Amino acid sequence: LNTQMKPSALMRYLGQVKDFEKPKITLEQYATDKEMAANVINLIDEEVGLEGNTVLDLGCGCGMLSIAASAMGAAYCLGVEIDEDAAAICKKNVEELECEEVVDILLADALTAPLPHNFFDVVLLNPPFGTKKNEGIDIQFVEKALKCVKEEGSVYSFHKSSTRSFLLKKGEELGAETRAAAQMRWKLSNTYRFHKKKAVDIDVDVICFTKIKKV
Question: Quick one: DSSP state of residue 134?
């Protein structure tokens, strides 16, 4: 039985996901674009498959990627979110979209939460880019994700395209086969007071880190 949503239906479904009410700049909170989320989830499903698999969403925000993974037939998805307000919106989204049987939300710091190692089939990451006071935090998220994913499992993470060569090298140092799976334009809406434009397009890479099996 195929429990997966078609791409067009997935886009409509994700259109119901509510975003941050009061985003926090210290946490680099930006709404995940639904079109990009749908494209990424479809890409992951084509490459490694989501149906019947366990998924971890580190720093899940309002739950866009977790909910998308559940719509593509994931057996279980754990979203980890440090911000109480975002976690509350995420919980509400999960309930309203009736995927609470598949998606659990854990209110915790994704980097320090005692998550099981070598457990998840796929880990999803939309980490802070580390552009403000959080320099290097994106790599910390990748390191945590690689601890939690199974051997030969995959981590899919969003990063600025300008950091691609650094990320590819870093992934190999961390024991993963690393490649740029896709490049996308992320339309960031005017979120904070210091933003001068209504929206800005940022080139974003979807980097895939496949954990190498230990011999």
Answer: -
* In contact, 59 and 141? CB cutoff 8 Å: yes
Q: Per residue in 152-199, pLDDT tens?
A: 999 999 888 988 999 999 999 999 999 999 988 766 655 445 445 555
Residue-wise burial string across 72-89, b where 16 or more C-beta atoms lie within 10 A, e elsewhere: bbbebbbbbbbbeebbeb
List, for residues 86-97, the tens digit of each pLDDT value.
999 999 999 999
Q: CA 104 to CA 109: how far, in whole Å?
A: 15
For residue 158, which of 22, 75, 24, 61 has the smallest C-alpha distance? 61
Q: How far is CA 173 from the centre of its chain?
A: 22
Query: Which neighbouring-strand residues pair with 123?
Result: 56, 155
- Distance in angstroms (rounded) separating the CA atoms of residues 186 and 179: 19
Q: Are 149 and 211 in contact (CB under 8 A)?
A: yes
Lookup: tokens for 48: 């490694």
Backbone angles phi and psi of 93, in degrees to 5 = -60, -45
Q: Is 79:101 a contact under the CB 8 Å cutoff? A: no
Note whether 174 and 143 are within 8 A (CB): yes
As a whole number of angstroms, the distance between CA 98 and CA 76 comes to 14
Q: Are 120 and 45 in contact (CB under 8 A)?
A: no
